[in-house]
TrEMBL record:
SMART domains: Dabb (SM00886). Homodimer. The lineage of its organism: Bacteria, Bacillati, Actinomycetota, Actinomycetes, Micrococcales. SUPFAM superfamilies: Dimeric alpha+beta barrel. Pfam families: Dabb (PF07876). This is Dabb family protein. It comes from Sinomonas flava. Residues 2-94 form the Stress-response A/B barrel domain.
């Protein structure tokens, strides 16, 4: 299983209506993208100096499933909100065992 984690540092002027459309789009992907086993997301609650503003964590059966997700018709429109409204986006994809919590 592959865990895909993405962190976003938003620009201060990210319009709230676009942010709401973006998060609603994230919710629509659950159960609708082949190979996407789980997807959670939410804003940072600690707000420390080193913190990013938002995180997405998604689990996939394989690396090939992440490739499907990256170009899926439900994922593509979200890029028009996240890329122009972010100062920085970082990600990591790592393997987890089925025994891991």
């Amino acid at each position: 299983m592959i865990r895909h984690a993405v962190l976003f540092k938003f620009k201060p002027d990210f319009p709230s209506e676009q942010r709401e459309a973006w998060t609603a789009g994230l919710d629509r992907m659950r159960g609708n993208v082949p190979g996407l086993l789980a997807l959670t997301h939410g804003p940072d609650v600690i707000r420390s100096e080193r913190a990013f503003d938002y995180a997405i964590v998604a689990d996939f059966e394989s690396v090939a499933d992440i490739e499907v997700y990256n170009t899926h018709p439900l994922h593509e429109p979200l890029k028009k909100y996240s890329f122009p409204n972010s100062e920085q986006i970082i990600s990591v994809d790592f393997e987890i065992t089925k025994d891991a919590p």
